[in-house]
Structures are given as C-alpha cells and as structure tokens.
Amino acid sequence: MELKDFISLLSVIAGFTASIIFITGFKSLTSTFIADWATKWQDINEHIIQTMTGQKTDYIIGATVLCSSFLLIFLTFILPEKILCFRLFDKISCTIIAGIFFLLLVWLFLVLRPRIKKKYVDDVEKVINSDLHKKL
C-alpha cells in the first residue's frame, strides 16, 4: 500500500469514528431528556422542544450522510482493482452527476428533516403528557 493510500485509509477511519460520535450525541438526546429540560421551569417551553428535537434530527441525518460517505471511500480500498479502473464517464459528465447527487442529498435533507423532527416532537410531547398525568 502506498503512503497516500494509507493516509486516505486513516482519514476514512477518522471520519467514520466522527460519524459514530455524532450518533452518540443523537442517542443522548432522548425524549425523556428533552421533556425534562422543556418542563424544568414553570410551564412547558416549546422553544426548547423545537430546538433540541431539531438538533437531534440534524445529528441523525448528518451522521448518516457522513457515515455513508466514508463507507463509499472505504469501498475503494476493498473493491478489486479491475472494477475500480473501469472508466465511467468523462470529467464533465462526472462533475454534472456529482452536482446532481449533491442536490439530491440537499433535497432529501429538506424533505426528511421536518418529518423526522415531527416524530421526535410527538415523542417528547407524549413523555410530557404522561408526566403531567403523573403529577396530577
């Protein structure tokens, strides 16, 4: 293995580890944790619920895309050379396809984020409502 390939492999491992750390951050923002913070003072703080569920959503989407990107790079280390040397398109076509891929990822983020966030908000509200019934 050449030095540049070894450095790239270390980069893949570091990036994959970073995505795992993002997932750990996502896991720590449980519905109960968010509900506790949102009701810590007098009444229900909707702003805290929206902010923390938005952060949780961004963590999971970002970590998924980051993890996927490093897994794609890792494929270059495990696929046979015969497959990797196959010429797909010219540079301009590849640039256009890469741009379309980027736009697809942004579009998916814009479409998925509100749906995932709503699910998390609903989960937090269920926890809050169950806690309010316990207090009464």
Descriptive report:
With 136 residues, the protein is mostly helical. It has one domain. Helices cover 85% and strands 0% of the residues. The chain contains five helices and no strands. α1 packs antiparallel against α3. The longest helix is centred in the last third of the chain and has 45 residues. It is elongated, with a radius of gyration of 21 Å. The model has no long low-confidence stretch (mean pLDDT 85).
What is the topological layout?
Blueprint: H1 3-28, H2 31-38, H3 46-78, H4 81-84, H5 91-135
Short description:
This protein has 136 residues and is mainly alpha-helical.
Radius of gyration: 21 Å
| Global geometry | elongated
Beta-strand residue percentage: under 5%
Oligomer: single chain
Number of strands: 0
Mean pLDDT, to the nearest integer, reads 85
What order do the helices and strands follow?
Answer: HHHHH
What share of the residues lie within helices?
over 70%
User: How many separate domains make up the residues?
Assistant: 1
Distance between the terminal alpha carbons, to the nearest Å? Answer: 67 Å
Task: Show unreliable segments.
Answer: none
Taking the sheet with the most strands, its summary is: none
